[in-house]
Amino acid sequence: MTTxxxxxxxxxxxxEELEAEHAKAVAGGGEKYxxxxxxxxxxxxxxxxxxxxxxxxxxxELQPLIGWGSDFAVGGSMVTGIGVVEGVECLxxxxxxxxxxxxxxxxxxxxxxxxxxIAARNGIPxxxxxxxxxxxxxxxxDIFIPGGQGFRDLTRASAAKRPTISVVFGNSTAGGxxxxxxxxxxxxxxxxxxxxxxxxPLVKMATGEDTDDESLGxxxxxxxxxxxxxxxxxxxxxxxxxxxxxxxxxNWRKRGPVPxxxxxxxxxxxxxxxxxxxxxxxxxxxxxEAILRIVDGISPDNAVAFDEFKPLYGSSLCVGWARLHGYxxxxxxxxxxVLMSEEAQKAAQFIxxxxxxxxxxxxxxxxxxxxVGTDYEQGGIIKHGAQMINAVSNSKVPHLTVIMxxxxxxxxxxxxxxxxxxxxxxxxxxxxxxVMGPAQLAGVMEIVAxxxxxxxxxxxxxxGFAGVRAMVEGMIEEQSLPFFLSGxxxxxxxxxxxxxxxxxxxxxxxxxxxxxxxxxxxxxxxx
Length: 527
Prior knowledge:
Layout: H1 5-26, H2 31-39, H3 45-52, E1 59-62, E2 78-85, E3 88-95, H4 106-122, E4 126-132, H5 140-159, E5 164-173, H6 178-181, E6 185-189, E7 194-196, H7 200-207, H8 213-217, H9 219-226, E8 231-233, H10 236-248, H11 287-291, E9 306-309, E10 317-324, E11 327-334, E12 338-339, H12 341-356, E13 361-367, E14 369-370, H13 374-378, H14 381-394, E15 399-408, H15 409-414, E16 424-427, E17 432-434, H16 438-455, H17 462-479, H18 482-487, H19 500-511
Helix pairs in contact: 4-5, 12-14, 16-17
């Protein structure tokens, strides 16, 4: 592949923007509040996570940009992700007390629900690093009613034999008190943890009783009197040490696929992914160039890096088998953007085959959607697209999705977009996702407006509509960009393309905590 300097420069510029946005999440509540937090002898949320996970292991942060573009701090006042603790992959949720005392806003709720969903679907334990003032009261109308789901999720996790651990570092008030209250294991930090449904001022107002923090909800009281704490830690580091010992005693065993013991690095240099995506997403690119930079290379027990299936049929969709960090996967990748009947039928068959042999699927997006036009409608594009969507919808093997370029219209659905419950979904900084491209959408609006004027016997004001068109194109362009979509919680993170192999390897290892079992009952396929 010839290096495209313009593509590389454009991607590096987008990655630089991504790093700047990630820095906002890492900054938490800002320098002032981080300094105040440290002055109290406390660790930040990310420092707590770093001490908790095994030394030298990766932490896969999830949805770090949630809330981007909103009135709330980027990150949802918490850090969530997957880390390895004593050899066990755990879902970790850490309140960020530098952001409004770790109080929960609507973005926090979305983020915590997604984290709980990931833990449940992949069958892994959850560790809550708790320090939260509960609900952000000005937004209570948006979070009070749905917020109860978080406590429901904790109790259901326990019932499903997915242990839940809460380490309480500071205030855990009102709704925040139910997190340790409903966890299987609770660790509280001496002279720091304060867990109560109502603090001393509210107790005074409600009952007239005068009390203090320690008597009402201190760590020693809960460890010695109420029994709501299982372990009393002398400080934050001791609490994290105890949490690691709890995980070490869980007797945890994976029940899913076992990867090959050895594997080769990709055939092509992952750095070349920076050259791959055209600056104009209407230009196609060969997804095989991406695949061979992500999957395992050739080795004694892996004779071919990528075994393509049906390579001469439906050629604008590339599908086939590969290994990634030793795990068997099936891959569906858009080659020329558009999906036609042949591609849809090919995809449906391939998805069935993956379910027949219990193999996870990876979807790599660069699609403008299903083909339109008289010939294609008469050829049955609707029913063939329905076959593909039926297969995607009813497939039971785990799905992973990466949006590399365009992801427009029903192509987003057929390629297992967010609405189709992928186990994990990540986007590249080059990604765009919307009902259609900005120019196409604005053009459709102009045609409709022109036809409406003509039907009324009026003259269409093309000059006047030009301003509307420019406004619509700008709005759709902005709303299709990855930061905007990530801010809404529509992905699990925007990632540097060069990190794709590592991120997917972590995801495959996580989903291997559960058995992978396919589905052969797909309902009625419209033929």
